[in-house]
Amino acid sequence: MRLIALNKPFGTICQFSPHETRQSLADWVKVPGVYPAGRLDSDSEGLLLLTDDGALQARIAEPKRKLVKRYWAQVEGEPDAGALAALERGVDLGDFVTQPCQTRIIVAPENLWPRNPPIRYRAAIPTTWVEIAISEGKNRQVRRMTAAVGYPTLRLVRVAIGALDIFSLGLTPGESIDVPTNGPWQNTSHKHK
Fold this sequence. Notes:
Blueprint: E1 3-8, E2 35-36, E3 44-51, H1 54-61, E4 69-76, H2 81-89, E5 102-106, E6 127-134, H3 141-148, E7 153-161, E8 164-165, H4 166-169, E9 176-178, E10 191-192
Parallel strand pairs: 3-7
Antiparallel strand pairs: 1-3, 1-9, 2-3, 4-6, 4-7, 5-6, 7-8, 9-10
């Protein structure tokens, strides 16, 4: 059984099969027989776990397991207390209502790698970084949540899954590392380039 943590670069799709215009996971992970335990859309970056074990994949990805995923979202504008409270209560996205989550405004992260390409900068519109911790993970959920409360996401980075934190793992975009399959997860093993 194998578990690999990848810092998925911006623009990479969460599949191993080739894509006409985008990089795929095969461009970064050369280990046969592994597949993503959960997904990140191509416009999102950060921690993605891959495994060759179906039961482990279910433990990581299934919302009923309540494994918290922590995201840093750079949003357009300056969310007020009401917007954060709405996110925390749960947001009606039309097709479902999100489960309660934890949010907080954070200082612009200095330890975050630059995005390539960078987000579009507009001098007249400030941006704010918000940390959002959720235990579900439906398609484009965090982006849809921030937009629903009036603050569209410009950049989204998943920084942690459970006890695994991308910074303590020391992963730059495109790097991966083997991690222990039995929780709580620790920072161990070797990096792949």
